[in-house]
Each structure stands twice: as C-alpha cells, then as structure tokens.
C-alpha cells in the first residue's frame, strides 16, 4: 500500500543529488578498473618464443621411451625401513 500523499516529481527533486552522486561513484569505479586493466596490459612482459629444444626424431624413439633429466639417478631407490 502506498501513502496517499506521494508526489513523484517532488521525490525525484529531493533525490536528484543522491542519484547523481551514486552515478559518479559508479563511473569512478569503472574508470578505476579500466585504468588498472590498461596498466596491467601495458606492463605485461613481451611474449617470447620458447627456447628451441632438441627433440629426438621419430625414428630414434621406441615405445616406452621417457626423457629422464640428467640429474636423476639411473638406479632405482631402495625403500627405507621405518622402525616402529
């Protein structure tokens, strides 16, 4: 139920400053976000192609071949016995 003495023009006039303030705050937020995204895009590192790695040819590969880094041990590790 609405009160019988409502006057939309009078209410709009009373709230005009508040509505303008909210619109300015929203506009400031959008400008702030766009500035932030633009700054992130401007300071992003350039895309560089990855270094060319020597890939083995398909005739050099067998089923089950795995590239093992050179620092990895070639012998399997022995499991440790944990005393209880």
From TrEMBL:
> What keywords are assigned to this protein?
Membrane, Transmembrane, Transmembrane helix
Which residues span the membrane?
17-37
UniProt superkingdom? Bacteria
Q: Where is the composition biased (Acidic residues)?
A: 75-84
Region called Disordered, residue ranges: 42-84
- Transmembrane helix: is it a keyword of this entry? yes
Protein name (Swiss-Prot/TrEMBL): Uncharacterized protein
Q: What is the lineage of its organism?
A: Bacteria, Pseudomonadati, Pseudomonadota, Alphaproteobacteria, Rhodobacterales
